[in-house]
Design brief:
With 230 residues, the chain is α/β, with parallel strands linked by helices. It has a single domain (3-220), classed as Alanine racemase (TIM Barrel, Alpha-Beta Barrel), CATH 3.20.20. It is built from 9 helices and 8 strands. Strand 2, helix 3 and strand 3 form a beta-alpha-beta unit. The longest helix has 18 residues, at 3-20.
């Protein structure tokens, strides 16, 4: 199936999920995940109307972004090491994977040097998986005021990567917990947080039903990533 047909199918599924949850489709941002995809695929997605692209690694973004002729907005969605922050601040318009106070402080430092502000999402590891990065809920709440005080950062919401399971309904409680945690964060900050980034190719409809405002979709849009020979 071609990219345009894939996009049409995804948009229809987003509309149907929004209808089931009494939401407007305009309230859900489709972030196309271009990990492992060539610049040509990004340009084609942009030609079809996609304006937001997510990358998992600074190294890949560094080589890919200069080759993408389309006007798109790049989000960092993978784990970010502190030694890659300086480049990330130059490459991305949002960092969705802030998972510690030291990382937030480094981003703030590099943004100050670059005389810019950075919208961020705070990544949460709700299932406590050792194989995944992300805040535990109580540690996030303990650090929240300190992160909010960093002058170059703007907290826009929360992000999670749920456990992998073939039973998508098992993920509904995870998405619900993230929405409830966002509400707790809003109470602490005394201000609304506009975004919940949750839901990927296999579960984005459930995530939308539970309040996702950003869905990160790669395989369902671009197809399987190209394998390169060793």
């Amino acid at each position: 199936m071609s990219l345009d047909k894939n996009l049409e199918s995804i948009q229809q599924r987003i509309r149907e999920a929004c209808e089931r949850s009494a939401r407007e489709p305009s309230g859900v941002l489709l972030l196309a995940v271009s990990k492992g995809q060539p610049p040509e695929a990004v340009n084609e997605a942009a030609r079809l109307g996609i304006r937001f692209i997510g990358e998992n690694k600074v190294q890949e973004a560094r080589s890919k972004i200069p080759l993408c002729t389309a006007s798109v907005r790049w989000h960092m969605i993978g784990h970010l090491q502190t030694n890659k922050v300086r480049e990330a601040v130059q490459l991305f318009e949002m960092i969705q994977s802030v998972d510690s106070l030291p990382l937030a402080e480094e981003i703030n430092k590099r943004c100050d040097q670059a005389a810019r502000r950075m919208p961020i999402l705070l990544e949460i590891n709700l299932a406590g998986e050792a194989s995944k990065f992300g805040y535990r809920s109580e540690q996030l709440l303990a650090d929240l005021a300190s992160i909010n005080a960093l002058p170059r950062l703007e907290i826009h919401g929360l992000m999670t990567i749920p456990p992998y399971t073939t039973d998508a309904q098992r993920l509904r409680p995870i998405f619900r917990q993230l929405r409830e945690l966002k509400q707790r964060c809003e109470d602490v900050l005394g201000a609304p947080l506009p975004h919940l980034s949750m839901g990927m190719s296999g579960d984005f409809e459930l995530a939308i039903e539970e309040g996702a405002t950003i869905v990160r979709i790669g395989t369902a849009l671009f197809g399987e990533r190209k394998r390169t020979a060793a």
